[in-house]
Design a protein that fits this description.
Oligomer: single chain
Number of helices: 9
Organism: Echria macrotheca
Low-confidence stretches: none
Mean pLDDT: 86
Keywords: Membrane, Transmembrane, Transmembrane helix
Strand content: 15-25%
Largest sheet: 6 strands, antiparallel
Number of strands: 6
Family: Belongs to the lcsJ thioesterase family.
Protein name: Capsule polysaccharide biosynthesis protein
InterPro entries: HotDog_dom_sf, THEM6_lcsJ_thioesterase
Shape: globular
Length: 348
């Protein structure tokens, strides 16, 4: 997604009116077409078989068509700018966003399942939905840092520059294949953050098999009870949801103002999703993710989302994110073929 979220927040006042004018003009032109005659000729005229087959092919492969990725990503931006609740509850910070998709025929490889390379385009769309939804209010505030003064350097000087969000790395673990035309869902949420990176986790899940216990904001469909019961009505242990997972990916984002790296906690706090934290807050201390003190007494994981519970959840995620982040060190393994190479090959 690179810096698309930040750029969209900057160009939205221009894109919005232009898009509205283009849609209005297209609607005006469409009203002048005799659609009944056009459709009759399309379905019954010469060459109808080829046209109908082409329409079916495009319908089955629309997400693999030219510019389809751009439409999917910008749809996520526009959708959440228009539909996001004014204020999300505190608990929403670590909640999943759910996006549905289906494997197109053009995404299918010679093994007759979804090609591994196509997961990354879906991740762009799923992350765009998540980040725009939970951090949407922070984008205009960070983009107008000259007024809001949210981002200052260590000496208290104002940071200038265009705001952007960059993708630093993606790791994907494949567990089961996804068949051609099979539906699936992408469940994305914030995993953790440190002083530089915001880590996100995305699970590719069998469509329709998993439902959340509730939605943040208005009802968006069926939910499940927190209590799982057996057929005889007795309470049972929570179901093993991992059996519905096709793949799991971890991504990391960096926030930038010009060339200056913005602490993720600033963006999260600007979106209204970080509770107040005593002492040096969320950006002080040796680790620069808050004070290094222990959380203290046992945290009630079913209780209020205070700073202790948020920090506990962040530390849980960092246990995985730290190992993922350590892979950056593999850059040092590249020696430029000091001992030779096997060859240079065409059609790469």
């Amino acid at each position: 997604m690179a810096s698309a979220v930040g750029k969209f927040g900057t160009i939205a006042p221009i894109v919005g009116p232009i898009s509205a004018a283009a849609i209005a003009y297209a609607g005006h032109r469409a009203m002048q077409v005799n659609w009944k005659a056009w459709l009759t000729n399309f379905l019954t005229g010469p060459g109808r078989t080829s046209r109908i087959l082409l329409v079916i092919f495009i319908a089955l492969n629309w997400k693999s068509m030219p510019l389809a990725w751009t439409v999917r990503v910008f749809h996520a931006f526009i959708y959440h700018v228009l539909r996001r609740p004014r204020q999300l509850p505190q608990r929403a910070l670590f909640h999943y966003s759910v996006t549905s998709s289906r494997t197109s025929l053009l995404e299918t490889d010679y093994n007759m399942h979804k090609s591994n390379s196509t997961y990354f385009a879906d991740l762009d769309v799923s992350r765009s939905h998540l980040v725009t939804h939970i951090l949407g209010p922070a984008v205009p505030l960070l983009s107008d840092n000259a007024r809001t003064r949210l981002v200052l350097d260590r000496d208290g000087n104002l940071i200038k520059g265009a705001f952007g969000i960059g993708l630093g790395a993606v790791f994907c673990s494949f567990r089961r294949e996804i068949a051609p035309l099979q539906g699936y869902e992408m469940w994305s949420r914030v995993l953790a953050w440190d002083r530089k990176w915001l880590y996100l986790v995305t699970h590719f899940v069998v469509k329709g098999k998993v439902r959340p216990t509730g939605w943040d904001g208005k009802r968006m469909g069926p939910t499940r009870s927190r209590v799982v019961k057996t057929t005889d009505g007795k309470e049972a242990e929570e179901e093993d949801w991992s059996k519905y997972i096709f793949a799991t990916a971890i991504s990391k984002y960096v926030f930038k103002l010009g060339r200056f790296t913005v602490h993720p906690a600033i963006a999260i706090q600007a979106a209204g999703l970080l509770p107040e934290r005593p002492g040096e807050g969320w950006r002080g201390g040796e680790s620069e993710t808050g004070t290094p003190d222990e959380i203290g007494e046992e945290v009630d994981e079913e209780g209020e989302w205070d700073w202790r519970r948020v920090e506990l959840e962040r530390r849980k995620g960092m246990e995985f994110a730290a190992q993922f982040n350590a892979l950056d060190g593999t850059n040092a393994l590249f020696d430029g073929g000091e001992d030779g190479a096997v060859g240079r090959f065409p059609l790469g």
